[in-house]
Amino acid sequence: MAPTDKTQLRVGRLTKAHGLKGALKLELFTDTPEQRFTPGASFTLQVPETSEWSGKTLTLGELRWYNGHPVGFFEGVDDRTAAESLVKAILWVDQDLDELPDEDDAWYHHQLVGLRVERDGVVVGTVARVDHLPAQDLLAVETEHGEVLVPFVSALVPSVDIEAGVVTVTPPPGLFEELADDTVEADTVDGDTADTADGDTADAGAEAEPASRDSDDATRPADEN
């Protein structure tokens, strides 16, 4: 199979039927709805396999705003019954792997996952995923001791170098060490401290897209949000 040059990005979720003519309220996972939700835009649907919409796409007719909330009108969804059958469906769009977000200091999830994470020039783990939280995004960093969640803000993640495959972190003291200490403590039996690979006693002192600021597709440090 030939390698694909595209991925998919989650940009929204249908939350509730609105009115009697098939409209649906939306939860947006994008900072640029004016670009993602244009008339004629096509979305892949994430729905249960038992759904009548399974394997189908949805085409947007129009996006309107009511009291600050986005409401979508989609082709072929003409009444409230049809709209209710789409509630909880997640909307995905195709995205070129090489295309970067329009904003500075913004990255798509697939560009971050798998990058090595370095602190003071030393590799401490790899990016496993990006978690979105209301206040900010978190980078989930997989280390040899387990997972560390690092707030994706410029103060703690000052550099992301996609070409070099490196995310640089400057975590506060104890963020990574605390996890290592917990592992050592768990390995301690009858007062004997676990030894490191070279025979020395292990010492206690020896890291969500866009904060979210984004939520969709791109992810970036979230100082300004």
Question: Can you lay out the helices and strands and say which pair or pack?
Answer:
Elements: E1 6-18, E2 23-28, H1 33-36, E3 42-46, E4 57-66, E5 69-74, H2 80-84, E6 90-96, E7 107-108, H3 109-112, E8 116-119, E9 122-132, E10 137-143, E11 146-151, E12 159-161, E13 166-168, H4 175-187, E14 218-219
Parallel strand pairs: 8-13
Antiparallel strand pairs: 1-2, 1-6, 2-5, 3-4, 3-6, 4-5, 7-14, 8-9, 9-10, 10-11, 12-13
In N-to-C order, the SSE pattern is: EEHEEEHEEHEEEEEEHE
Helix content estimate: 10-25%
Work out the strand percent.
35-45%
Largest sheet: 6 strands, antiparallel, barrel
In total, how many beta strands?
14
Shape estimate: elongated
Mean pLDDT: 78
Number of helices: 4
Protein structure class: mainly beta
Radius of gyration: 22 Å
* Biggest sheet: strand arrangement: 1-2-5-4-3-6
Low-confidence stretches: 186-225
Distance from N terminus to C terminus (CA atoms, Å) equals 42 Å
What's this entry about, in short?
With 225 residues, the chain is mainly β. The protein is 12% helix and 38% strand. Strands 1-2-5-4-3-6 form a six-stranded antiparallel β-barrel.
Please provide a written account of the structure.
The two termini are 42 Å apart. β10 (137-143) and β11 (146-151) form a beta hairpin. The protein is built from 4 helices and 14 strands. The longest helix is centred in the C-terminal third of the chain and has 13 residues, at 175-187. The strands form 3 sheets. A 6-stranded antiparallel barrel has the order 1-2-5-4-3-6. 12% of the residues lie in helices and 38% in strands. With 225 residues, it is mainly β. The model is unreliable at 186-225 (pLDDT under 50). The protein is elongated.
